[in-house]
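Worked example 3 (structure in, sequence out).
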């Protein structure tokens, strides 16, 4: 069924706008968190949720490490308020049970995200002592992955309140849907390897020589294997995304965003290898990766629009 813009209920338009605004804010939170990790400022404050016992700690506007970490915490608090508003609005107004449950999932992910971030700080070896830092790094990796899932769920909620979703008349062919699911798994696997690299600071394990060095990292040991898994996985994921985007009769407006984001992400990945100590390149690489993953989630959902699981949404 096609719904004209004039017949779109105000609650749907309002929720769509709120979800889009929250999605934009979540990207800012991710950027702040990524930059904090890139400059190794995650422990600029040893306490949590306050920073040195305050919401306005001395030095946070003048010292880059404190600014990065505290601005990330403040922005994350704002994201929590946005997500509470989204959840309450769905609880009061949304008639589709599955969409309402997805809003509850979003709130759960945001609460979990705060807890993971807090545990990453409180269980750091600077707080608990010891030589290793496995606990803090593990929570930091989980924190990074959960951020990607949170943004993806926000993107799906925005899609579910859009005219594009309501006006979709058919599902993609079964091979296209299968490719889409595989592409999602491949991209998320690359994100996982990237999170392990970033949180363990393995991203300096690179070469600066031949073109082949863009694929084969330098060094030995665990860092070498993680970098190799990330780069080889990125190749597989790129092929999967291209296969999904070009299969069937996918319209240009669908595959073009995926193509642009994929090309940009590959370029940033190469630049990250050539400039391993540049925090800005690595942070943008992280953000574009999240944009690619969330866009792919939305496109795969659209490909399943008229299947049995999605037709009543």
């Amino acid at each position: 069924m096609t719904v004209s813009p004039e017949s779109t209920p105000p609650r749907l338009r309002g929720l769509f706008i709120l979800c889009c605004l929250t999605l934009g804010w979540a990207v800012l939170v991710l950027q702040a968190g990524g930059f904090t990790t890139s400059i190794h400022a995650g422990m600029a404050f040893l306490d949590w949720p306050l920073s040195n016992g305050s919401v306005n700690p001395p030095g946070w506007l003048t010292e880059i490490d404190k600014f990065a970490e505290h601005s990330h915490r403040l922005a994350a608090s704002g994201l929590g308020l946005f997500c509470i508003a989204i959840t309450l609005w769905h609880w009061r107004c949304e008639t589709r049970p599955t969409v309402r449950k997805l809003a509850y999932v979003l709130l759960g992910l945001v609460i979990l995200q705060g807890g993971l971030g807090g545990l990453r700080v409180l269980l750091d070896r600077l707080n608990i002592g010891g030589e290793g830092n496995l606990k803090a790094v593990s929570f930091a990796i989980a924190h990074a992955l959960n951020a990607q899932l949170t943004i993806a769920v926000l993107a799906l909620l925005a899609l579910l309140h859009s005219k594009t979703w309501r006006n979709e008349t058919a599902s993609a062919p079964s091979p296209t849907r299968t490719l889409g699911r595989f592409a999602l798994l491949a991209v998320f696997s690359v994100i996982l390897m990237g999170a392990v690299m970033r949180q363990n600071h393995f991203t300096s394990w690179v070469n600066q020589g031949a073109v082949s060095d863009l694929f084969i990292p330098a060094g030995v040991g665990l860092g070498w294997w993680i970098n190799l898994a990330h780069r080889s996985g990125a190749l597989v994921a790129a092929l999967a995304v291209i296969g999904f985007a070009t299969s069937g009769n996918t319209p240009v407006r669908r595959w073009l965003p995926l193509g642009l984001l994929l090309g940009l992400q590959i370029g940033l990945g190469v630049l990250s290898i050539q400039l391993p100590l540049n925090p800005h390149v690595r942070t943008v690489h992280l953000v574009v990766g999240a944009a690619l993953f969330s866009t792919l989630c939305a496109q795969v959902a659209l490909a399943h629009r008229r299947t049995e699981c999605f037709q009543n949404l």
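Notes: The chain is about 70% helix and 0% strand. Residues 1-7 have pLDDT under 50 and may be disordered.
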